[in-house]
Amino acid sequence: MKKQQQLYKGSLSAIIMKLLEQNGRMYGYEITQKVKEITVGEMNLTEGALYPALHKMEADGFLDVEMEKVDGRIRKYYKLTESGIKETDNKMEELENFVRNMQSIVNLKLT
């Protein structure tokens, strides 16, 4: 496992929520592929990490689940609820602050 995976793990729900905000609704495999595409293969989101995060967000009332039959199989689509949309805004703000602070630390020059 790449070292960055641990860093990404803390931001997992924010990543998922942002993707759902952008795409309306998505199913699990689609989320994993989109993350891989956006990060040019740097971040590999496993099903073992994704589904527990999705289930927790659903339990917290941030996601709605829609079942749809696709090619004879049931597919679960996830989309943000009203409170999920608000939470996404909060998470994006937290993430931006975190990135800004990390950038400041990375850019520190010894004086």
UniProtKB/TrEMBL annotation:
Segments forming domain Transcription regulator PadR N-terminal: 16-87
Q: Does the keyword DNA-binding feature in the UniProt annotation?
A: yes
Q: Which UniProt keywords apply?
A: DNA-binding
The keyword DNA-binding is annotated on this UniProt entry: yes
* Tree of life domain: Bacteria
User: Matching Pfam families, A to Z?
Assistant: PadR
GO MF annotations in UniProt = DNA binding
List the protein's name: DNA-binding PadR family transcriptional regulator
Q: Identify the species of origin.
A: Myroides indicus
